[in-house]
Design goal:
The chain has 294 residues and is mainly alpha-helical. It is built from eleven helices and four strands, in the order E-E-H-H-H-H-E-E-H-H-H-H-H-H-H. It has a single domain, classed as ABC transporter involved in vitamin B12 uptake, BtuC, CATH 1.10.3470. The strands form two sheets. It has a two-stranded antiparallel ribbon with strand order 1-2. Strands 3-4 form a two-stranded antiparallel ribbon. A hairpin with a 2-residue loop joins strand 1 and strand 2.
Length: 294
């Protein structure tokens, strides 16, 4: 049996590999969408925070013997705390100004962090081992899927859906959304809006770091890993709709699959297919697939 001229086994195998890439796109675009949707900040430092998450896990293992499972908790907390410091020291001074100022500031921070780690570790990359519990692979019949990549898909979906539920379906999420729309009114009800804003940016940074820890055993840990991915992730967020959390998750997974199948049908276009889709979507629907029209 064939689908679009591809044997069924090859089709299903490519679908699964696309979901793995899409899981990383979804995780990273989720943090970007949270920060932009709630704070109106175009966070260009997101790729650097992703890189810091991976390096935090590597340093914890190399210097302190902290295993993957503990790093999966500690690294997002450490990078989330760094995100809180960035928001308090730098970004809070830019609220109310043109979003371009925030973009330029976070872009400068990303260059600074990338340069620092290039000086410390070079650009050759560091290996991070797959945790023993997730080593090996499972025969699905149509392909042999590494257990760790299956874990990445499951963990990413769980985190993405949990974050969406927190922001869209809980009282805390309602406070967050209301605080960004009318801070003074929400503060009149006794809600500490500056604290919520600070924790929101820290949460977005923690999500980027979590994606970095998940990526560390799959790809080499290098200072360039964030800058190589962030442009594609921004395209994913634009296609899904700036600020749309669910849109970013669905679009990230979908574009990972599209990119995977493009490698089968027309490999030369696999590096640009995301941007082609972005252009088409912006022409037909400028607000994005799931964004709200102005």
């Amino acid at each position: 049996m064939e689908i679009f001229g591809i044997p069924l086994q090859a089709f299903l195998g490519q679908l699964m590999l696309g979901l793995v890439n899409g899981a990383f796109y979804a995780m990273l675009s989720l943090g970007l969408a949270v920060i932009f949707g709630l704070l109106d900040i175009v966070n260009f430092a997101h790729g650097a925070l992703y890189m810091l998450g991976a390096f935090a896990a590597y340093i914890m293992l190399d210097q302190f013997g902290i295993n993957y499972w503990l790093a999966l908790v500690l690294a997002p907390l450490v990078i989330g705390a760094l995100g809180v410091a960035i928001e308090r020291v730098f970004l809070k001074r830019l609220y109310g100004l043109d979003p371009l100022y925030g973009l330029l500031l976070t872009f400068g921070l990303s260059l600074l962090l990338e340069g620092l780690f290039r000086e410390l570790y070079g650009v050759s990359g560091q290996n991070y081992p797959v945790p023993e519990l997730l080593s090996g692979a499972t025969n699905l019949g149509f392909m042999v899927l590494p257990n760790y990549r299956a874990w990445v898909i499951f963990a990413s979906l769980a985190v993405c859906l949990g974050t969406w539920f927190l922001i869209e379906r809980t009282r805390l999420g309602a406070y967050l959304r209301a605080g960004t729309e009318n801070a003074k009114l929400v503060q009149a009800f006794g809600v500490n809006v500056p604290m919520m804003v600070m924790l929101t940016y820290g949460g977005g940074a923690a999500l980027a770091a979590l994606a970095g820890v998940l990526a560390a055993p799959v790809i080499q840990v290098t200072p360039l890993m964030g800058s190589n991915l962030i442009i594609v992730v921004f395209a994913v967020v634009v296609i899904g709709g700036m600020g749309s959390i669910l849109g970013s998750v669905i679009t990230g997974l979908g574009l990972g699959v599209v990119e995977g199948f493009t490698r089968v049908f027309y490999p030369e276009a696999s590096n640009v297919v995301v941007f082609v889709v972005m252009v088409i979507v912006l022409v037909l629907r400028p607000a994005g697939l799931f964004g709200k029209e102005a």
